[in-house]
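User: Need the bound-state model for iron/sulfur cluster:
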Amino acid sequence: MSTVLNEAPTSIPTLANPSHWTDEPAEAAASGAARMKIERETHKLEKRLCREVGKAIVDFNMIEEGDKVMVCMSGGKDSYALLDILLKLKARAPIHFDLVAVNLDQKQPGFPEHILPEYLATTGVPFHIENEDTYSIVKKLIPEGKTTCSLCSRLRRGILYRVADELGCTKIALGHHRDDILQTLLLNMFFGGKMKSMPPKLVSDDGKHVVIRPLAYVAEKDTTRWAAHRNFPIIPCNLCGSQENLQRKQVGEMLRDWEKRFPGRVENMFNALQNVVPSHLLDGSLYDFQNAKATGIASEDGDKAFDKEEFVAPSPSLPGVQVVQLS
Ligand code: SF4
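Assistant: Bound-state model below.
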């Protein structure tokens, strides 16, 4: 659209409006505004990712002075995001620690083995590619049509522990995020009869390594956005031909649906994991029900007998809160 001199201006040019500084077409101004909005959102996303990863590291004492952290890279969006954010935090951390990126090439047919080394070379981070044909072992041992994931991941775990030893790594960092943690909690409740999730930091099952999950506070939608922004060369995760775990997929969909219909619910569930009240559950190993006796001292945490509990939940429609009463 060009400026027509003999038409009355629809608005008085002002210095405050960048589109009035020149004859810049309105469309260009609009796309400039859209670009600025995207830049602002991306900047906010980067700050949020760094803040959440930094907080998880501090809250769970994940990385200490002198640590050498092995960052496990699968080629999926989450592992790329993990390495990317850890590199940013390392540059400004008040302590010294080293990172080494490790990928296990399991020799699945069609695995694009050049992608990760090429990408990692651009980051400047030391990296190691471990080549082990676990694909053939799994195919040989598991009958056709049976699920291959449990043997495959057991083999992968053993190899990664060995590599961590060989590289002198003191921590093993995995790219699981908040939604993985919640899905695991629900899967354990639905199918395992346990209140158990995925820990942000725990000693490995062989007792020799410390496994950390620095993305523990990060929502999956943020790693997805960050991966798109950074244009990570994602490697598809279906090369082995195995179906993605159906139950995990269904639980993931359920959580996404809840979040859409009841914004804030997923975050509240995650907060609940950090706010456990053993006296109000039923596990006698966490709370001594056998010896519970009246103390004569009033306590807010005591049983409220017949009172109905009120729950304050975020509401998508009201700016305030919604009170839900359960009978
Ligand atoms: S999806 Fe494939 S690569 Fe992943 S654990 Fe299962 S069998 Fe292994």
